[in-house]
Design goal:
By secondary structure, the chain is mainly alpha-helical. It contains 4 helices and 4 strands. The longest helix has 31 residues. It is elongated.
Length: 200
Amino acid sequence: MEIKLMAVCMAVGFLGLLATALSFAAETKRIKRSQILYTSSSECTHPRSPALALGLMAVVALVKAQIIINVATGCLCYRRGPNQSNCSWTVALFCSVVSWFTFVTAVILLLFGAALNDETGEESKYQGHYVCYVLGPGVFTAAAILSLATVVLGILSFVMVQSAKNRGDSWIQPAPAVQPGIAIGQPQFPQQRYQDPVFV
């Protein structure tokens, strides 16, 4: 059991750190306003930027980490047993729910940042002037912080579930004990004797 715990934590931790590092790298490589070339009064050109690829690779790493940690942890919704303390189950469930919230937010920020760093760029007319959209600072940084939070909360939830299993706490409701002499799922009616039908 310890081997599984260490393997999952190391794999998810590595993927989380990778997603965080790629997000910070995308922040440093994003297109700045000073790099935009205006070819005419109504057109602008974005330079090629590695932030698009870095952002997409961060998304892939984060999705893999979230899949691994959730498959290893399992569903926490209906696993609270009678002997298990309310505190540990509540904390594990809270960490899992917040982990999903930070995961979705980080993925949205990474995809949004990657899309705005695409070299095609768009122009639009705003109050009579043409405007080229540029990603502002901090989007990839916020995604990096949320990626790290996602992984930390997921690992914490997984460790709490595993420690509860090692302590012998019941995370799954036990099946009811079968009493001898009672058939479960079969009717308990006395046998009736049927007579042949009488035709009139």
